Structure formats: C-alpha cells, structure tokens
Amino acid sequence: MYRLSSQNVPIIFESNIEQESTEYFWIIEEFIEGSTLRFFLNNDYNFDTRKIISFLETFLNIAIELESKKLVHRDIKPENIIYNRSLDKYWLLDFGLARHLDLESITQTNLAFALCTWGYAASEQFRNLKQQINIRTDLFSIGVVAFEMVTGYNPFIKDTRDVLQVIKNIERVP
Predict the structure, then answer these.
(1) Exposure string (b/e) for 137-148, b if CB count within 10 Å is 16 or more?
(2) Considering the domain boundaries, does residue 5 fall inside one?
(3) For the segment 111-152, what is each residue's pLDDT rounded down to a tens digit?
(4) Which of 85, 87, 89, 168 has the greatest number of CB atoms lying within 10 Å of its CB?
(5) Which listed residue (75, 94, 102, 162) is catalytic?
C-alpha cells in the first residue's frame, strides 16, 4: 500500500486480498473522529462558502498528491468523506477501489461496467474505460460532492434512482 503525506488521508496499517470461496480485499486504516459528509447532507447541515472552499482546497490537494503517485481513488463520495466539525477538517477514506495507473488493474477486467457509485463516478469509470481513467475521474467526483454541498442534492440523481437514467444524466454533461 502507498503512504500519502496528506494529513487528510488516514494511515493505512494493513491490507490484503483474501481467497476463500470468493476473493475480497480488506483494509485496516487509522480511526478518524467525525461523521460522514453524507450524515451532514442528510441532516440539512448548512455548508457556508468558507467550509466549501476548505473542502475543495483539501480534496484538490489530495487529488494532486494521488496524481503524483499515479493513483486514482475512484470512489470519492459523501459516504467516504469524514468531516469533523470541531476541527473543521475533512478526510478521504476507503481506498478499496483505488487503482495505480501503471498497473493493469486491481478489479476484474472482463466487466462491461466497473465497480463504482452511480451519480459520483465519471462516465469513463462506470464504462470501465481504464485507459481514460486518471485524475480527471476523481476531479469529476469532487465536483459532484461540492455541488451537493452547495445545493443539498446530487445533480445526477436528484429526480431518479434509476441507474440507466443516472447514466444518461452523466453522459449529457459537456
């Protein structure tokens, strides 16, 4: 596992791929005090401009560091972000779908659609176009999360939970 110098990413103590009846990947990481960003969004927490700028600054710096190590998180969403109100600090968690761009893959390559979270994944990710996945994939997700912090809703799933409609909504983005 790669060590990031960012103070906004927990220390990863251990990770492994287990092979039993099915293959699964696990990660043990540092405990981070706070609640998920999803908790705050679901409870109509008001993110003022300063907090949103702080989020963007933090996550754009994380994206820069990931790019410098040729890593893509591929699952940036409110459920994988911890916000500590008393410290006014954000953390990015869950590197279970992360990918090193110089490696073939850490996920199955024969899937027509990749593992992702609909509404936060860029089209190159959910279409499993691995040669097109790079920092822009994470930047797309960061933008969706920031939009949700400003407006209180995800622009791609506001009026639907139908996956095909979410895909169409994302594909319409210029």
Answers:
(1) bbbbbbbbbbeb
(2) no
(3) 555 677 888 988 888 777 777 888 899 999 999 999 999 999
(4) 89
(5) 75
